[in-house]
Amino acid sequence: MNSSNIGSTQRIPQKHLLLSEVLAVTSAMRKNSRWASAAHTLHARDSALARDLGLRRATSGDHNQRVGRVSPEADLMGGFQELKRSIRDTDDIQSIPLPVLLGPFFALIRSPISTGPITSVALSALHNFFVCGLVSARSVELEPALVELSNTVSHCKFEASDSSGDEVVLLKIMTVIHDCMVGSSVGAFLGDVEICEMLETVLTTCCQMRLSAQFRGLAQSAESTMLSIARTIFGRLYDFHPAEEEAKLQVNEDEPQHGDLSLSVQTTTIPLSQTVDDDPSSGTLTQDPPPDEASLHDKTADGNGLPALLELLRVLVNILDPNDQVHTDSTRLTALSILNCTIETCGTRIGDYPSLMVLILDYGCKYLFQLARSDNPAVLQAALRTISSLFETMRPHLKLQQELYLAFSIDRLATPPPLRSNVTKKLSTASPRPGSSATSTPTLGPVDTELELDKGSPVPSRPPVQPARGDTRDLMLETLSQISRHPSFMVDLYMNYDCDINCENLFERLIEFLTKGVYPWQYSSASETQQLHSQYLCLDMLLAFVNDMAARARGECEAWNPDFVSPEKLLQSKSRKKLVLTGAARFNSKPKLGLAFLEENKLIYSDLSPEVSQAKSLAMFLKSSTRLDKRLLGDYLSKPDNLELLKEFMSLFDFKDKPMVDAMREMLESLRLPGESQQIDRIAETFASSYFASKPAEIKTQDAVYVLAYSIIMLNTDLHNPQIRKRMTIEDYQRNLRGQNGGENFTPEFLQHIYDSIRKREIIMPEEHTGQLGFEYAWKELLTRSRQSGRFMICNSALFDFDMFKTVWKPVISAITHAFITFDDEYVIQRAISGFRQCATLAGHFNLPDVFDFVVVSLSQATSLLSENLPPHVPNYPVVKVEGQDITVSSLSVKFGTNFKGQLAAVILFNIVNGNGNALREGWTQIFEMFENLFMHSLLPTRMLQMEDFLGGVTMIPLRGAHPSRAVPRNDGGLLSTLSSYLMTPYSASSDNLVPEATDQEVESTLCTIDCIASCRLDEFYAQIMQLDSVALVAVVRALEALAHERTIATLKQESDDVMSPYSGTSQSDGTYVLPYDPAAVFLLETMVSIACHTTQCIEELCANVTEIKDALRDQLYISLDLIANLPPSVANSVAEHVVAGHADRMELSSLQPCARRFRIPRQLDLHSISLPILPQEALGQKITPDNFPGLLSILDEFATVAGTTIQFPPPKPRRTTQQPSGDSPPIDRGRKSVDLIFDLKRIIAPFSDSTKMQPAQVWRSYCLPLISSLGHQSTNPSRLVRNTAISQLQRLLLGPQLVYDEAGHSQVEEIFNNVIFPILDELLKPQVYLLDPQGMSETRLRASALLCKTFMHFEVAQSHRQHVDIRVLWIQILDLLDRLTSTEKSEPLYEAVSESLKNVVLVMNAASILVPPPATGDDPRDEQQRTMWTCHAGKIRAVHARILVRSRFRTPTCIRGLETCFWVEVIHK
Questions:
Q1: Residue 1429 burial (C-beta neighbours within 10 Å; 0-12, 13-18, 19+)
Q2: DSSP conformation class of 440
Q3: 1412 by DSSP, 3-state: which?
């Protein structure tokens, strides 16, 4: 009957229900033949009736004989009859004591003569009583009834019948116990003894039934009942008050009451009818309590409490002991199931009860960890589940226990190294315990893998552990995954273990294991499915770690608990731990090196004071460090030079009130005795001195301690060495020490205690802790450390994420990359993609460019877009038109279109870097390698192919270079040979021009590639490059430079050395190697130039702030300009216009040093087609500086000069004249503009002279003379327009006010004539110059003569008038030039112009009193210079003028006026 029927049965009167159950039981009894006769028997009961009526009834012998033979069956039947009579007249049976109502049922259940069916009916009746409420908290005398009920179900006896009926009885017993303890309200009234009795019944049934396959169903039912009971009773811990319960427990321990409280579990297989019998012969085993656990006693005052729970927990823990051969794995499975249920129910509450917690932390964890090595899969699974529940609920109390388990799990799960033969032999000789593996448990001392390799001397290594394989590995990995599912798990590991100098670096070890676990195993016997499952689990834990850290970076973290150690101290401890580990490793290699390192890093001798000497400081470190090799430590301390250190080391032990054996144990656990007897003697003597100083009882002299120490070492060896057959007895030991205590004997009790302690517990030297004894020692050390280590800190804090991520980012990203590339599961790929993004986010959050670079490099390798050997030529790929667009079907587009993983990697890569370019450094190389590959296959967006041409537009980078036309070899044959040659030439003679056809599948793959590239948003990313910070831009340019260098300089060097290379280079006639056109190299160079042009502000900033960069940039610029200047003419001419336009832009870089060499470049170029960069008038003062003025003037002069080279000179044939191009011709127009710009440069003379505070002579030399020299040079230009413009601008400049020169001196004026004017006329008078432009050269000569005379009048006449400068020589030269002009060419305009100019000069000279004729009469008022001037030049003037008249065909009015002028002067003279 279940609880759903309770509501309906409550309507039936309880009296009716009781009578019905009595009838059911008695009916079952009557069905049995042995009960049938007893059903109608009345005995002795009529005596009460006779007595009540006052009668005396005589008894016969037969009656007495009948009464003596009353059967037990009749007595049991009579009990029910009596119950019926007692309730006949009672309407409310709740008023009747409960023991009276239930007594007959209890008696029948306990009776050994009852059968299975009868007992089953009686138990069903009890169950119905609980259901209908007859047994409830309101029942009279409930507690005595419950005591009797507990005794009844615990001692149920019945005759065996068929097995199915017997199984039903046991099931009914479980049901009644469940009703009593869980299913009703009376459970709280049960005492601890009653609870223990019923729990013992259920637990015994569970354990026994598991042993028989026939009754597995019964065992499962009993186990289910036990689990339900455990949940209920342990759930009451939440209602108890821990302090009160612990106090009551202490009272019960101090004052034992009646009835021992203990559980006993019967585990041997017996008949079901005796399963719950308490007969001693049934094989019941009473569990011994764990050591140091006091016996618990009954608690009957006020119901059950902590004692019963403690007793059940004790029994469950004891069953788990794998070294107890009494219990089987089947029994342990039951105990594990119940214990796990208990921990799941109240694990979080157990920590509040010290008595329960001690049991779990010590024996519970100890046995569970040993069962984690079980070879039984069921036991292993149950143990691991219990362990995970334990850590889930009690983690704050299990710091060192968790460290041990995690270290052990990592050791078993890690790929085992190949074992050496001696290790294998050592393992094979070990004797395994039942339920445990042959290998020993790992030691608890912290070990770092990386330090084991430091300088080839590892710290004490962990004993080899049998690797987990198959299902065992899967179980352990699943458990590890379940334990680590908390977001704070890795943080907790780091701050509790990695930051604790006495613990392992569990975080680093776990990450190392997980990252290696993602890769496939080598030499593994696991199936592919198991291996893949293991890889998935490792990857899942790694990605969970990254995801949790990314969540904390977003602010999803907890505040630091102020009760914990401060994060600063933990991080300091981590730093110190690294130094200590390194120092310990070096000490284990060579003590002197280790001590030197420790002293250098202030780990020793930093606490020196009057109280702390150097020896004591070192001794404190050596004793406290658990990473030192104990063998080396003992050897080092026992050296003669370190005797003072040894004394300080021994003084650190507290031997006060400590027995001699325990003191020896403590000392020998800290170091290992060396092999030499003298060293052992020093240690023993120092120990004796230190121990005797603590004033031990029973020992009278220090020598006695010394002798005892040796005797204990010898006794330990004698009693536990397996090679010694005859062991030392206590009598032998006493005899050996006779008279050694200051001449007296030690007391027998004293020596007996030493002997018994050594016999029961061997002293195990350090590094010899193997096997079960080693595990016991290690566990003892763990418990000792746990009392000092404190609680396990749990906090999902982000304070340690930077250090954690910085330590493990590289293997984590590598593992994620491997998973992304190799795994095919979509969920795993999606998780890996999220891992990449989160790693990139963390790299930006922590400002770790190396991490971001590594993510980019890893993803770029997964894209398959990197090409190691990219050919310089592009094959002829087919081009198809799809939806109106031309699509190139290349090998890369087809291959990449079918690579879904590569497409995913590309999209993720560029989604990550898009907007995060400032975080990239070395990763730019891979990005531009992919761009380069995409460019070669016509897959880049158009925006990335449009490069600057410096002429106000953009150009597309061609994939193929322009091939020069080849001369067709002349065929000397006739018509037939020509035809035969044509016909015999195959169509496939030139395979370069063949274009393969693209299939539909290839076109579809190419479209997939194009869609993927579009999803990458490369054009957006390329645009973002121009906005990067200066540091990132430097990295970009360096990457481009490196790639371009590899494809240009490195290739040229390699191919020029390898003549037989298949590279399609060519050689010039001079033997030099020519690099063929490489579009990839051009793309890289153009990209680099474009980026540099768009980010000039960053270059300015770098140059302004960093002098070293400024100088280096300037030097690199000069080198680059020299390289451009030395380009071959064919190359230089093709880029001439762009180079010059770029020069105009670079003039803005006013912060650079003088770079006149920059303007040498155009002289090497063919400037016929170069557009002249025109500077606006308002920008002259902004862009032109004193530094770049000479270079600018030089390049403008070069432009003007090139205009003259456009003149086509005919061959020397008659009637052929030179053709002058029109003024609209670009070269001529550029030349004219250049001359105008040269003239406009006069405007900057005054500002420059004012800003630089230069003297007039310096201004003349730096600015004025170069300007007039350049204009003078262009005054003889073959181009008529350029030449005439230059002469005009020169005249304007010379006669204008902007010219600055030293008026006090005459040398600068002489330079004008000697260096500018005279050379112009000399050049114009040359016949070959005249032939350059016969039609226009006369006009030029005319202009030049006018320039000569006007300049002479402007400078010489005025200056001579002021300063009396002698101009006779200069005037003679002018007359000679004028004479030569008129003599070289027959030109009437020229004659007239020269004559007019001469007249003007004479008149001006006369007006200036330079050329003064003598007076007609009287004294001559002229000075000596005037007389000389007239005497020397008057005749010369007349002669020159006369020749002009003679040469002139017509005497023009001008000639006549000139002649008249001369005569007029002469008249004046007269």
A1: buried
A2: P
A3: coil
